[in-house]
From TrEMBL, chain A:
PANTHER family: METHYLTRANSFERASE N6AMT1 (PTHR45875:SF1). The lineage of its organism: Eukaryota, Fungi, Dikarya, Basidiomycota, Agaricomycotina. Belongs to the eukaryotic/archaeal PrmC-related family. It comes from Botryobasidium botryosum (strain FD-172 SS1). This is Methyltransferase small domain-containing protein. It is found in: Nucleus. Residues 35-126 form the Methyltransferase small domain.
From TrEMBL, chain B:
It comes from Botryobasidium botryosum (strain FD-172 SS1). InterPro entries: Trm112, Trm112-like. Interacts with TRM9. This is Trm112p-domain-containing protein. Pfam families: Trm112p (PF03966).
Length: 228, 125
């Protein structure tokens, strides 16, 4: 068992603006730990976490892969979150590279089929469209959870770039809840982009039924191994 | 922490700005050198993702002329070359300053080591 990254430098005051790691964060850590062997074998060189918040997930990934073995890029629309991510990297001796940006926008042009590990724990809670639009514009704590229609408003935009970002052996980990309509997401990604998916872990936490989905190109080794 | 490895992956994404929008030009930068762990395997694995001409010209603008104009063929990298590449990509930090789009002149600020790549809603593609 790898320890959860040290977040003792973050205070309740930080968590007024930055998402405090919760059950969704922890199931994502558990999924990465479960896949640790596969991840290490892949020798990823470029990891990108969208919406890194506290930076807890990327710091954990850095512990799995090694701090000097990959580049850890992180984006968030919330300035406080990017600052926390930077500090969490320092605290845990994993160089994290936060970029204040929405989704992968300034990176998409250069990262064509270049991302080896892509991760997103999105704002997935179903809300009104207005609430989600307001939260995106506000770039504060509300942006951590307000997901609009089906909780998919923010995630849907990223889904349209995933295939173009992933390297041939790349893996994409996504946190989703039941209301996000997981069969629909999987079907869309396969039909539209030829990306297959599987549920790595699922768990009930309070009212949420959390899932960790993993997407990859059809020809991916770990997929071939499974069907043989 | 804007290192040249990150800078090499950022392009302008303002509305209508799709050509000549890379590399962003550094302006008024404060640099800091910080030692990083050297890993030649990582560097070799990462090289295909680098836009070589952009890296060399940016390093030169920041006063580092250690990189050759031509990227060595895979498998022919010398130790000396890999150490120079390591320093340029991983150890030069831009803490403050800005990055300007060569095409539309949009200015992206860097403050406390974090690049602000956000655009206002009307500036988005
Ligand atoms: C559920 S929190 C997850 C935080 C952290 N990754 C974790 O697992 O604890 C969602 C994060 O996504 C960020 N976010 C929301 N919309 C975003 C967008 N359009 N682009 C980038 N990040 C976004 C939020 O600011 C927040 O930090
Ligand atoms: Zn531009």
């Amino acid at each position: 068992m790898l320890p959860t990254p040290d977040l003792s430098h973050l205070t309740q005051k930080d968590y007024e603006h930055v998402y405090e790691p919760a059950e969704d964060t922890f199931i994502l850590l558990d999924a990465l730990e479960k896949d640790a062997g596969v991840l290490q074998e892949l020798k990823p060189r470029l990891c990108l976490e969208v919406g890194s918040g506290s930076g807890c997930v990327s710091a954990f990934l850095g512990k799995i892969l090694g701090k000097a073995d990959a580049l850890y890029l992180c984006t968030d629309i919330n300035l406080h979150a990017t600052q926390s991510t930077l500090k969490t990297g320092e605290q845990n001796d994993v160089p994290l590279n936060p970029v204040l940006a929405s989704l992968t926008r300034p990176l998409t042009a250069r990262l064509h089929h270049a991302v080896d590990i892509l991760i997103f724990n999105p704002p997935y809670v179903p809300t009104t469209t207005i609430e989600a639009v307001g939260a995106q514009a506000g770039r504060d704590i509300q942006g951590s959870w307000a997901g609009g229609n089906d909780g998919m408003q923010v995630t849907n935009e990223l889904l349209e770039s995933v295939e173009s970002l992933l390297s041939p052996q790349g893996l994409f980990y996504l946190v989703a809840v039941k209301q996000n309509n997981i069969p629909k997401i999987s079907h869309h990604m396969l039909e539209r982009y030829g990306l297959i998916s599987e549920v790595v872990l699922q768990r009930r936490a309070g009212r949420e039924h959390l899932h960790i989905l993993k997407f990859m190109h059809l020809w991916h080794d770990s997929h071939l191994l499974r069907v043989v | 922490m804007v290192r040249l490895i990150t800078h090499n992956l950022l392009a302008c994404h303002a509305k209508g700005c799709t050509t000549n929008n890379f590399p962003l030009a550094f302006r008024d930068v404060q640099l800091e050198n910080r030692e990083a762990e050297y890993n030649p395997e990582f560097l070799k694995g990462f090289m295909p993702k680098i836009e070589w001409n952009a890296l060399v010209s940016t390093a030169r603008e920041l006063g580092d002329v250690s990189l050759p104009a031509e990227c060595p063929e895979p498998g022919t990298e010398t130790d000396e070359f890999l150490h120079a590449l390591h320093h340029v990509l991983m150890e030069i930090h831009v803490e403050e300053g800005s990055m300007v789009c060569p095409n539309c002149q949009h200015v992206y600020r860097i403050s406390n080591g974090i690049p602000n790549m956000l655009l206002a809603e009307h500036e988005i593609k």
